[in-house]
Design brief:
Number of strands: 13
Strand content: 15-25%
Number of domains: 1
Order of helices and strands: HHEEHHEHEHHEHEHEHEEHHEEHEEH
Oligomer: single chain
Largest sheet: 10 strands, parallel
Number of helices: 14
Helix content: 25-40%
Radius of gyration: 19 Å
Structural class: alpha/beta
Distance between the termini: 46 Å
């Protein structure tokens, strides 16, 4: 249970999240970058997408994999509206799109951990791996994800069939098996560098990486959903970008075990202090309370900072979650679709 009267521990962790994130993924990200340099020729620079017409008009819809997409099913509304703008999906939402008959105009992946390979289908999935990692069984999303072997076989089939039709913006930090699956399924790969630290700093790791590979730098905001939004407006040049599945939070009643960073938080503060780390946030547009963890809260704050400088209109059509504030409108997806399809 979230202790709404005591969130000081959670807020303190939010303030440390940038350093904690670097400590958690910095070394792995650099290792992946060095390895991926060996397969750099299996794709193009993200820069090449600037010259490609992706979707009609000046709008895009981002589809992320937050718990709201299985409560509001945005893909059904998108299909029914006849929307013809660009659809940009996280790798975790890619299968949601494909199984509903929609090939995203662009998929994005950034996570350096190879555990996300099952979003691409893992032909080598073993029982030992299933026994050792409950990441997918814990997901607060589509129930089919928890039927792990069945889900994995479905994803393999979908990616083997649609791979050549999919453009994917692959971060140089991506894990080995994720990259191999992108190559093996014939995806159209576009490489880019995420900003791991301040590129203007004298000892910047990001600047050193750029000097080596000269691939475009993108401020990913620490997560793949924000990366998709950045791709939509900064790379594809869309002036109106809607967000779906961008919750950055959980619905009330969700077991802590089903939250994204449960084990990391438990190992950091202990089981008895979990309620002090999670934070309750009231969404005034929905008059409803959601709860979040320090990582998601930090992602949300980073997004709002980026939105303030973005050359686009951002409309959060998630219809749930905690992403709201200056420079981010909060409206139903139906309104955005009506505005863009009538234009």
């Amino acid at each position: 249970m979230v202790d709404s009267k005591s969130s000081s521990l959670g807020e303190a962790l939010v303030a440390r999240m940038e350093q904690m994130t670097w400590d958690r993924i910095g070394e792995l990200s650099q290792k992946n970058i060095r390895r991926n340099a060996l397969v750099r020729d299996q794709g193009e620079s993200l820069r090449a997408l600037r010259d490609v017409a992706v979707g009609d008009g000046d709008s895009a819809i981002v589809i992320a994999a937050g718990p709201s997409i299985h409560r509001h099913d945005p893909i059904a509304a998108i299909k029914n509206s006849g929307y013809r703008g660009a659809i940009v999906a996280t790798e975790s939402a890619m299968v949601y799109c494909l199984r509903n008959g929609v090939v995203p105009d662009l998929v994005v992946t950034v996570d350096p951990h190879d555990r996300i390979k099952r979003w691409f289908g893992d032909p080598d999935l073993s029982q030992e791996e299933l026994d050792a990692d409950d990441y997918y069984r814990r997901q607060d999303m589509d129930e089919s994800v928890r039927r792990e072997r069945e889900f994995n076989e479905e994803v393999i089939g979908l990616l083997d069939r649609h791979g050549p039709d999919i453009r994917i913006a692959v971060s140089t930090t991506a894990g080995e098996n994720v990259v191999r699956r992108c190559i093996d399924t014939g995806m159209q790969i576009y490489w880019w560098n995420p900003m791991l630290d301040d590129p203007d700093a004298e000892d910047s790791v990001t600047r050193a990486i750029w000097r080596e590979n000269r691939l475009p730098l993108v401020n990913a905001g620490g997560n793949v959903g924000t990366s998709c939004w950045m791709m939509a407006h900064a790379v594809l040049g869309k002036k109106r970008v809607a967000l779906t599945g961008m919750d950055f939070s959980y619905y009330g009643g969700t077991d802590f075990l089903r939250t994204q960073y449960y084990y990391e938080i438990r190992d950091l503060v202990g089981e008895d202090r979990l309620g002090e780390v999670f934070m309750a946030i009231h969404n005034p547009y929905l008059d409803r309370e959601f709860f979040t963890d320090p990582a998601y809260k930090w992602y949300c704050e980073c997004f709002l900072e980026l939105a303030a400088d973005a050359d686009c209109e951002t409309v959060n059509c998630t219809e749930g979650g905690i992403l709201f504030g200056d420079h981010v409108a909060f409206r139903p997806l139906a309104d955005f679709l009506a505005e863009t399809t009538d234009a």
